[in-house]
């Protein structure tokens, strides 16, 4: 009889735990926006053709670093949140992430060199106006983040929950390109150039480390909002070959928890 009672208690507790876990599991969808840049380096003295000149990868990397600046980036994700304990939950996502960096050339003069693919790669405009070029290097990924969240604060009415987040994201490269935008002048009557030859060799697979916070706020009976500011860093270069690129970004994911009763 005692054995039967013990087994009944274990089954009851197990069922209760599973039911609680299922009740506190959820799906969410977010859109993210923020700023991305990268550390860029090369010590290679190997030469390559750059317009009509021969330069080393180190020289080219130094040129990029002299004009390196952040730019906007975007993401879209679907998330699954799984209850682990009273303080912990697991968050797994699947979506799109765009990362990279911007190189800026400012106040270009007649005969200054631009990137190959912009006309003949040289400023031929005799006008005396200021001429700038922004080069946006873009890495487009299918992104799989796996995060662990820990409760650090809840309001007395339980409507707002703040959690610390940390984890790792796995990335599959969809494509890589560079967009050059001219400011205050045109070349061949164009202000925007999409350039494939960036002299970088992107890796197909990458990963990044993530940390930040997650805020859930119950706006009303049917609506729970999610805000998740995150910092991400690629510890291994996203490129192979002569130049190394380690992107990083600050991003705010914002969205809504989906009502699974209406989905299924």
Would you kindly provide a written description of the structure presented here, covering whatever features stand out?
With 264 residues, the chain is mostly beta strands. The strands form three sheets. It has an eight-stranded antiparallel barrel with strand order 1-5-6-7-8-11-12-14. The chain is elongated and about 65 Å long. The two termini are 41 Å apart. The N terminus is likely disordered.
Order of helices and strands: HEEEHEEEEEEEEEEEH
Overall average pLDDT = 88
| Tally of separate helices | 3
Kindly state the percentage of residues in helix.
10-25%
Distance between the termini: 41 Å
Spatially, the strands of the biggest sheet line up as 1-5-6-7-8-11-12-14
**Strand-residue proportion:** over 45%
Low-confidence stretches: 1-22
**How many E-type strands?**
14
Main sheet overview: 8 strands, antiparallel, barrel
Q: Which structural category do the helix and sheet elements fall into?
A: mainly beta
Radius of gyration: 25 Å
Shape: elongated
Which characteristics define this entry?
3 helices; eight-stranded antiparallel beta barrel; mainly beta; single chain; 264 residues
Give a brief description:
With 264 residues, this protein is mainly beta. Helices cover 14% and strands 58% of the residues.
List the helices and strands and how they pair.
Layout lengths: L1 H22 L2 E16 L5 E4 L2 E4 H10 L1 E2 L1 E13 L4 E18 L26 E23 L5 E24 L8 E4 L5 E2 L2 E16 L2 E11 L5 E2 L3 E15 L1 H4 L1
Antiparallel strand pairs: 1-5, 1-14, 2-3, 4-6, 5-6, 6-7, 7-8, 8-9, 8-11, 10-13, 11-12, 12-14
């Amino acid at each position: 009889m005692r054995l039967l009672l013990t087994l009944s208690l274990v089954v009851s507790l197990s069922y209760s735990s599973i039911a609680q876990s299922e009740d506190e599991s959820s799906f969410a969808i977010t859109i993210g926006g923020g700023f991305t840049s990268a550390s860029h380096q090369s010590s290679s003295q190997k030469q390559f053709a750059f317009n009509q000149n021969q330069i080393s990868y180190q020289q080219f990397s130094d040129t990029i670093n002299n004009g390196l600046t952040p730019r906007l980036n975007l993401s879209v994700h679907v998330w699954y949140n799984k209850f682990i304990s009273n303080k912990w939950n697991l968050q797994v996502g699947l979506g799109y992430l765009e990362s990279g960096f911007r190189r800026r050339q400012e106040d270009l003069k007649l005969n200054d060199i631009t990137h190959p693919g912009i006309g003949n790669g040289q400023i031929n405009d005799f006008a005396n106006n200021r001429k700038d070029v922004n080069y946006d290097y873009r890495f487009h990924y299918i992104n799989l983040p796996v995060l662990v969240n820990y409760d650090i604060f809840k309001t007395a009415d339980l409507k707002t929950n703040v959690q610390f987040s940390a984890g790792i994201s796995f990335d599959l490269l969809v494509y890589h390109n560079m967009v050059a935008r001219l400011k205050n002048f045109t070349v061949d009557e164009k202000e925007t150039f999409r350039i494939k030859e960036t002299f970088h060799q992107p890796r197909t697979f990458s990963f990044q480390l993530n940390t930040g916070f997650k805020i859930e706020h119950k706006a009303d009976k049917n609506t729970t909002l999610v805000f998740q500011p995150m910092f991400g860093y690629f510890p291994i270069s996203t490129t192979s070959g002569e130049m190394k690129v380690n992107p990083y970004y600050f991003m705010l994911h914002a969205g809504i928890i989906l009502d699974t009763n209406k989905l299924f």
